[in-house]
Amino acid sequence: MSAIDYGNWSQQLRYRLIEILALWEGRVSAPQIATAFGIGREQAQKVLRHYREEVASGNLSYDASLKAFAPAPAFTPRVTRGTLDEYLHLLGSHESLDTPFAGLGLEMASAEAIPMPSRAVSPAVVRRLTRAIRDHQRLEVVYASFNHPDGEERILVPHSLVLAAGRWHARAYCEKHRAFRDFVLTRFCRLPEPAGDRLDDTHGAAHDHDWQTMVTVHLIPDRRLSEPEKRMLEMDFGMQHGELTLHCRGPLVRYALRQLGVNPYHVEADPRAQQLEIANRHALQQWIDW
After folding, report:
1. Distance CA 36, CA 198 (A)
2. CB–CB of 142/128 below 8 Å?
3. E strand or H helix at 165
4. Which residue among 49, 121, 159, 160 is the one 20 to 30 A from 213 at the CA level?
5. pLDDT for position 194
6. Gap between the Cα atoms of 255 and 287, Å rounded
7. pLDDT digits (tens, 9 = 90+) for 82-120
């Protein structure tokens, strides 16, 4: 059954919000629905009740400690895909994801997308992370890396979730290294465990100075290309005055370059293979040290 069978567009959006919040934050309540859609609490309660009884019976159970509904053990997405992308879209952090128009059965021109490897992220892991972010909590995790492929225990204080270069990360303070770092969500070897309040306010996002630093990246067509080839790339990338300008947080610069296929430490012999080069490389040096 497609999402269009669950009622009109407005109803679908409300049901999708319920599923996304329940799956990725571990809780959904009538006040959240009321605030999101500008409706009364009584109407929001009716929306929740209809979802629970008619749309997805058995998906939600009431948790008195949360004063909200939580996902039941057998939770199965009915009006969403159950992907982390949908949660990020809800947060308004990534414009290229599916819009609320998805699934409405509109007549569209034929199109095709290349299937990419699915990097399955555990909803339970994300729920622990989002709760820790919201409540300023520490988490005890077992994290796999190339130095410790079987996993290593660490204490993290997460402050943001990031989709970069096709992978999900948590930006967090690592007590072992006494620094803010990026942690790939698929490398958490087990469910993170709460480890109490963060020890120091300087472990929060406001004191992640690299994260708070906004950086401008200037990219231009490879100088070795002919003028017609340069003009073609200018059109390809929507350049203004022969330059593509990107604005992003300092730690995300390297991910942006990777996504565009720009390697600051390797020059292709064929400029057609490289296409782009960094115009302000010196200014970016601290951000492109891979």
Report:
1. 30
2. no
3. none
4. 121
5. 95
6. 10
7. 988 888 777 764 444 344 434 434 344 454 555 556 567
Rg (CA), the chain: 22
Token couple for 203: 């472990």
| Sheet containing 193-197: order of strands | 179-184, 167-174, 152-164, 137-143, 193-197
Other Cβ atoms within 10 Å of 245 Cβ, number: 13
d(CA 149, CA 147): 6
Residue 189 and residue 144 in contact, taking contact as beta carbons nearer than 8 Å? yes
Q: Which of 21, 7, 129 is nearest to 66 (CA)?
A: 21
How many Cα neighbours within 13 Å face the side chain of 284?
27
Residue 238 contacts residue 184 (beta carbons within 8 Å) = no
**8 Å CB contact between 45 and 29:** no
